[in-house]
Design brief:
binds iron/sulfur cluster; TIM Barrel; 11 helices; binds pyridoxal-5'-phosphate; 9 strands; alpha/beta; about 325 residues; 2 domains; nine-stranded mixed sheet
């Protein structure tokens, strides 16, 4: 896309003063292994703050990503055991997760799909998409289709609209859901055309992934408002991350920020055991203590459900 001014190299990060302690030579193997992308608007925010802040740690590569601990897994939530056709994870009877692409606006350094996401080979080929549709058509128990990825809002409105039209054409599909980081981290993509595609007969619920209150820039808030004003219901999901949001003040501010922006907090995920992410993890006991403290200190409207996603593919479990 011609408007894409996303930063994708360490040299560009260095020029912007966005390398923390580690040098380009140390970080090169990190970004060889796990993709790097920072949209220019986000880079501006990070530059204003400096590279070693709770917000920036989510996005800037770190030498510690090369450290793999014995308990880490390629497939931290066991999706592979529930993949009936390429691009589909069917773990719960009434809903399927579909991954139409691998690209994201930004590659989060803690991502549980970090071995799968990245630029290149982005979109499911048309015969693979046809197989996805066949599978859903043949599975009438599925009443909800969740588009995830990658980030579905990286698709052009035309392309995404085509996929949603196809899904809407299946009679037992009553709810569409999209999981995305775009409205907050790459809000320029929420164009009038995108809004038009998301507003349709079959409701599209949008689950916005954000982990730190400072992700809500004025442009992000405007994009979110345009979605809500268009009648699109918004929910949140957050990953609990050491050094980013794992303290009561930050977490409370984030949940309130969601509600201020008419986004209902939905899930707070305990961090997964993805490779090279041990510096982000905290214990379940620490997470529970935080979730309980949140319960005691802020409004019920602001409460997410704290969940653990187990590696055996058993699904999300409230803790
Ligand atoms: C998270 C997830 C869902 C959605 O679960 P909800 O609890 O309905 O939000 C569906 N399928 C898979 C494979 C998932 O990982
Ligand atoms: S946007 Fe989501 S899928 Fe993409 S890197 Fe971040 S956490 Fe992973």
């Amino acid at each position: 896309m011609s408007r894409d001014t996303t930063i994708r190299t360490l040299d560009a990060l260095e020029t912007l003063g966005l390398l923390s302690g580690d040098k380009v030579s140390v970080l090169a193997p990190v970004v060889d292994r796990y993709a790097l992308a920072i949209p220019s608007a986000l880079a501006k925010v990070l530059r204003a703050q400096g590279p070693d802040t709770p917000l920036a740690r989510q996005f800037l590569p770190d030498a510690r990503e090369l450290v793999t601990t014995p308990d880490e897994l390629d497939e931290p939530i066991g999706d592979g055991a529930h993949a009936p056709v390429k691009g589909v994870v069917h773990r719960y009877p009434d809903r399927v997760l579909v991954k139409p692409l691998h690209a994201c606006p930004v590659y989060c350094r803690f991502c549980f799909r970090r071995e799968q996401v990245g630029p290149g080979g982005e979109v499911l080929a048309s015969d693979d998409w046809a197989a996805v549709l066949d599978y859903i058509r043949a599975t009438p128990a599925v009443r909800e289709v969740i588009l995830s990825g990658g980030d579905p809002l990286m698709l052009s409105p035309r392309r995404l609209g085509g996929l949603l039209d196809d899904l809407e054409g299946i009679r037992h599909v009553r709810t569409l859901r999209i999981h995305s980081r775009v409205p907050v981290l790459d809000p320029e993509r929420i164009t009038p055309d995108m809004l038009a595609v998301l507003r349709r007969k079959t409701p599209v619920w949008l689950v916005i992934h954000a982990n730190h209150p400072e992700e809500f820039t004025p442009a992000a808030e405007a994009a979110v408002a345009s979605l809500v004003d268009r009648g699109i219901p918004l929910l949140s999901q957050t990953v609990l991350l050491r050094g980013v949001n794992a303290d009561l003040d930050t977490l409370s501010a984030l949940m309130r920020r969601f509600v201020d922006n008419r986004i209902k907090p939905y899930y707070l995920h305990h961090p997964d055991r993805a490779k090279g992410t041990s510096h982000f993890r905290l214990s379940l006991a620490e997470g529970k203590a935080l979730a309980n403290a949140l319960r005691r200190s802020i409004s019920g409207l602001c409460q997410p459900t704290y969940v653990l996603d187990g590696p055996e593919g058993q699904g999300k479990w409230p803790v």
